[in-house]
Amino acid sequence: MLSTICMYFANAYRTTFGFHNGPPLHDPLTIAYLSQPEIFKTKRYRVDVELAGTHTVGETVVDVWNYRNLEEDDWSKGKNCLVAEAVDVPAFFEILLACVQKADKVTSLNN
């Protein structure tokens, strides 16, 4: 079942967005970060969602160049978000595959 789901999303992302190396793994990466943050490299940035239409509409805007010259000591008015910039890929897939193995042992689909 997992391979069917992965192939479906891989095809959808390939045909819709031109992703030829497989679909993004937003959800598993989020859960991996919550359980194993040490396998990620993060950096603080100012992140806002543009609602007024000044720069864009309804999109996330990240001040990667620190144009606003904000400090890291104020989460509300300064750099307000930890952004994951890199992940230890082998460690991530070790976690993912271990979770799949555990789920496979208890799923009713195997009975």
Task: Write up this protein.
This protein has helices spanning 2-17, 26-35, 89-106; strands at residues 40-45, 47-49, 60-62, 81-87. The protein is 40% helix and 17% strand. It starts with a helix and ends in a 5-residue tail after the last helix. Strands 1-4 form a two-stranded antiparallel ribbon. By secondary structure, it is of the alpha+beta class.
Topology diagram in text:
Layout: H1 2-17, H2 26-35, E1 40-45, E2 47-49, E3 60-62, E4 81-87, H3 89-106
Antiparallel strand pairs: 1-4, 2-3
- Helical element count? 3
Q: What's the helix-strand series?
A: HHEEEEH
Multimer state: single chain
- What is the terminal separation in angstroms? 14 Å
What is the share of helical residues?
A: 25-40%
Classify the beta-strand content into a percent band.
15-25%
How would a textbook summarize the main sheet? 2 strands, antiparallel
Q: Find the count of extended strands (DSSP E, 2+ residues).
A: 4
Given as residue ranges, the uncertain stretches (5+ residues, pLDDT < 50) are none
